[in-house]
Design a protein that fits this description.
2,3-Dihydroxybiphenyl 1,2-Dioxygenase, domain 1, two-stranded antiparallel sheet, about 25% strand, Glyas_Bleomycin-R_OHBP_Dase, Glyas_Fos-R_dOase_dom, lyase activity
């Protein structure tokens, strides 16, 4: 029924963040016209968490080894925000985009769904 998902990151400097995702993170992309890049993401999964407050949506890049992933993007010019923290369900850090926005990264410590067969 569904063939993929489309994630949107709102940015105060979309052009710089697009260049960063293409050049530093190395995500393959297409140009939808006028430099409007759309990136192929790694396999994805979705979780639904309860809340008593406002509904919100979050986006994380997942990795198998957070130290190795952060070292690789740091060597390519990315700034890592803060130390790696352990949340029990995963190990977390953030990459700072050129716009100043933070892009969370986590190494799951729970079973994952992104590699389940169809």
């Amino acid at each position: 029924m569904f063939v993929g998902s489309h994630v949107i990151i709102y940015s105060r400097d979309a052009e710089a963040d697009r260049a960063f995702i293409a050049d530093v993170l190395g995500f393959p992309h297409v140009d939808a016209g006028g430099g409007w890049l759309i990136f192929r993401l790694p396999p994805a999964e979705i979780a639904v968490h309860p809340t008593e407050g406002d509904e919100a949506h979050e986006f994380y890049l997942m990795c198998e080894d957070i130290e190795a992933a952060l070292a690789k993007v740091s060597a390519a010019g990315a700034s890592v925000s803060g130390e790696i923290t352990d949340a029990g369900w995963g190990r977390l850090a953030s990459i700072t985009l050129p716009s100043g926005a933070r892009l969370p990264v986590y190494q799951p410590m729970h079973p994952v769904a992104y590699n389940l067969p169809d």
